[in-house]
């Protein structure tokens, strides 16, 4: 009896190849969809970046209303669900714009700063510390600036405390190792805030904290690397030393103030930064006058008047009437003291 070899079951053997072909096709389709989504996402981000650049230029030109219109148009391109970082940062940029408007429209500064704070706060609904720590603390920095300016506008001490709190939180992230420029800038602002708090509360401890913050700032803002930032901190230091002289070590603090102002004037010249030059010269005149109240009356008054006259080279009555009148008052006070 002949045994027949069973005919191979060919159909079941072909099924894996069919399934594999279908699987590959599905993968290709899914890949095409994902790649298409990626391309569209990149196009959207590119368009957003372009609009942000346009708005930034408008802000530089002082066209703040135009900048706000551009920022508002960004919201038509992105959602908070698909682009949480960009959505939040768009609110942040709106906050910066309102903060800048406040510097030009002093009459309504308080209202503009409140709009700025609202925009900053709203941005933090989408920019979380866990997901986006750098941007999160960048917004906190903006909040510190806005509250410090709001204090200057309204004089509410609680807003000064809020500014100090935000600056302190930012320094928990922006260490000198993470971002030295941010570290130095924040410490300079924090020094200004502690100075104001020390003066309104007549508390030398807060002034000492201000001094520590300025010194931290100068770890980065060295004269040979960041000359103008260095000069700005030195001017702040000079004013701080004059204020500290009212509480203790009067002569040494006034002398430290004179040194700081002269450090600033190594950078600020009448040609490079005329307004800053005149401001520091006026401050230097104040320091020499304070020293004249302690010793060498005539010679120190003479040095004070020389500094005031340097300030008047810039603060002319036609261009800077308020500043001009202030310097003239200082000169009269100095001569009257003789």
UniProtKB/TrEMBL annotation:
SUPFAM superfamilies reported in the protein's UniProt record: TPR-like
Keywords, ordered alphabetically: Membrane, Transmembrane, Transmembrane helix
Membrane-crossing residue ranges in chain numbering: 17-35
UniProt cross-references to InterPro entries, sorted A to Z: TPR-like_helical_dom_sf, TPR_rpt
SMART domains for the chain: TPR (SM00028)
Keyword Membrane: yes
The protein's name: Tetratricopeptide repeat-containing protein
Lineage of producing organism: Archaea, Methanobacteriati, Methanobacteriota, Stenosarchaea group, Methanomicrobia
């Amino acid at each position: 009896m002949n045994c027949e070899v069973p005919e191979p079951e060919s159909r079941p053997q072909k099924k894996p190849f069919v399934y594999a072909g279908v699987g590959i096709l599905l993968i290709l389709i899914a890949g095409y969809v994902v790649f298409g989504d990626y391309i569209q996402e990149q196009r959207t981000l590119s368009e957003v970046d372009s609009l942000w650049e346009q708005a930034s230029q408008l802000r530089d030109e002082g066209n703040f209303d135009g900048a706000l219109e551009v920022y508002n148009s960004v919201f038509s391109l992105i959602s908070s669900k698909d682009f949480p970082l960009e959505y939040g940062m768009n609110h942040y940029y709106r906050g910066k714009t309102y903060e800048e408007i406040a510097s030009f429209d002093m009459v309504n500064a308080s209202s503009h700063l409140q709009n700025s704070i609202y925009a900053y706060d709203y941005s933090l609904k989408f920019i979380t510390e866990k997901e986006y720590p750098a941007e999160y603390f960048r917004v906190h920095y903006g909040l510190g600036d806005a509250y410090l300016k709001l204090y200057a506008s309204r004089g509410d001490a609680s807003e000064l405390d809020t500014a100090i709190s935000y600056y302190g939180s930012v320094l928990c992230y922006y260490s000198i190792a993470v971002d030295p420029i941010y570290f130095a800038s924040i410490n300079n602002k924090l020094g200004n805030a502690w100075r104001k708090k020390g003066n309104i509360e007549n508390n030398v401890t807060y002034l000492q904290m201000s001094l520590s913050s300025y010194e931290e700032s100068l770890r980065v803002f060295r004269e040979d690397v960041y000359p103008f930032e260095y000069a700005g901190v030195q001017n702040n230091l000079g004013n701080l030393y004059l204020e500290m002289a009212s509480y203790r070590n009067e002569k040494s603090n006034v002398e430290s103030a004179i040194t700081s102002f002269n450090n600033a004037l190594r950078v600020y010249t009448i040609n490079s930064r005329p307004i800053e030059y005149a401001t520091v010269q006026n401050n230097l005149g104040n320091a020499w006058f304070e020293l004249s109240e302690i010793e060498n009356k005539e010679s120190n008054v003479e040095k004070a008047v020389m500094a005031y006259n340097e300030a008047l080279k810039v603060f002319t009555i036609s261009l800077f009437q308020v500043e001009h009148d202030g310097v003239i008052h200082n000169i009269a006070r100095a001569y009257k003291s003789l």
